User: Fold this.
Amino acid sequence: MRAATIRDGEVTVAEHADPEPAGGEILVAVRAAGLNGADLLQRRGKYPAPPGSPPDIPGLELAGVVAARGPDARRFDEGDRVMAIVGGGGQAELCLVHERGAMPVPEGLDWPQAGGAPEVFTTAHDALFTQAGLASGERLLVHGGAGGVGTAAVQLGRAAGARVTASVRNAGLRDEVERLGATAIDPENVEAHGPFDVILELVGAPNLATNLAALETGGRIAVIGVGAGAKAELNLMALMQKRGRIHGSTLRARPLEEKAAAMRLFERHVLPLLESGAAHVPVAASYPLEQVGEAYERFGAGGKLGKVVLEIDGSAG
Amino acid sequence: MRAATIRDGEVTVAEHADPEPAGGEILVAVRAAGLNGADLLQRRGKYPAPPGSPPDIPGLELAGVVAARGPDARRFDEGDRVMAIVGGGGQAELCLVHERGAMPVPEGLDWPQAGGAPEVFTTAHDALFTQAGLASGERLLVHGGAGGVGTAAVQLGRAAGARVTASVRNAGLRDEVERLGATAIDPENVEAHGPFDVILELVGAPNLATNLAALETGGRIAVIGVGAGAKAELNLMALMQKRGRIHGSTLRARPLEEKAAAMRLFERHVLPLLESGAAHVPVAASYPLEQVGEAYERFGAGGKLGKVVLEIDGSAG
Assistant:
């Protein structure tokens, strides 16, 4: 099979041996695979794949058709449309997925949307609800509201009855983010729009002090991205006075049972929204696998609404 | 009535008008009142009393006898032994308490223990269980394990089936902390004894980096004291990789309904331990009200096991 392949800090297409499903795994003929921040980090050698994932094939999410099943796999039949998060290896013609880590693709969701949905909606749902306990009526701030996770978080917050504000650096994207259900603001104006019960931090350390100042009593800050820097000064007395809490998390390093649990929550709480159209996956650009270099360049340049996705013609597709 | 009184950065005894209970308040003839870190901060002008509390009388906890009741107070009768947390004013012959913020004093608990129990056990219980979700089998580190909150936390953790480690700077107190149910260690050796699922931070900013390094995946840090400094560098990427969270909280600033809810949890989960002797209140020293200056000096000097308490002869005692 052919796959996006990291070599010497570049991503190109190379030939790999076809993987074969064992135990409860399914082999997916990939049709689309989203790009995520972790891919850029991995390309720079800063985020190695977890054990059990291909070390040199990036890609944390994919959608495609079940091409084969391991001897213990029961949840899907060959030919079923599935989407999944994986520890790596998604940006390839074929990808192994444990059946508990896969979900059905709702009718009406095309391949680019399906390939760009699992990682960002799972990440956003986990951070907003499982960690931060966002509830209806609360005020949510999404930092980086135009990106992949940001657009997912805005829609999930809105669907759950929260009042959503999104910081969007690129003024040209604010109208589109508002159409997703948020009040879109300049990141410089966060404090004037607070206080917030929950703040989803996708940018990093430079926002921490402002986040704490704009936090409502009892508020929660969920940090899931630090592209702009990881080290921040934290005023613990201010955190005590706000009776606040700060969460950090990543999905990628979690063991199968936790990823599977997150998938079940996705099926229960997110799939119905994607099926009904109450939420969708904005795809800013899609590229064929051959243009993976351009796709990474586009993703890294930022200033886009939603996802950058590779479209792939998996061999059994 | 006479009361400990803050004037120009000193605490002396002065005469105040007797307070009168209104609504659901009870008037308590105080028999003992513990000292807490917040009193020292307030003496230095750094922690003003919340609205509704006497601005110049310190004291966040007290025990005594109900001397009078407001027209809507129903929970206690005159003569009942009660203990309570208050926003301030506890170190006085008389103190107003909302009846929902008071609890019965168990038989067998003497006045100094009862006067030193409410704040530290409520603080420790709230931080360990309500916030950090400490569960049986988990590993708990209590930073500052010999102090008032520390000795309460060690005993509560032990009673709930956690494996408890306590950092104790004063080597001469470690044996006594071990008798409370913890492995007592030098604060310099925290990392060698980890990882920990829950870390109770009573010291402050200097410990944060070590705490994060010693945190188990999915671990929680509860910050409730910053005497050694409030501003710390936080590595958000490390927090993400640990999938950890950091809580901050204080009891004092909470509204009545939250304090009352904390009291009900105390009644359900802590009173039985104090009644059975599974937990007790180590009283390092007690002073009569007249020696309030010496009591504050002793409290501020540190190096003690448990509480410093004022014994007071409330007018109806």
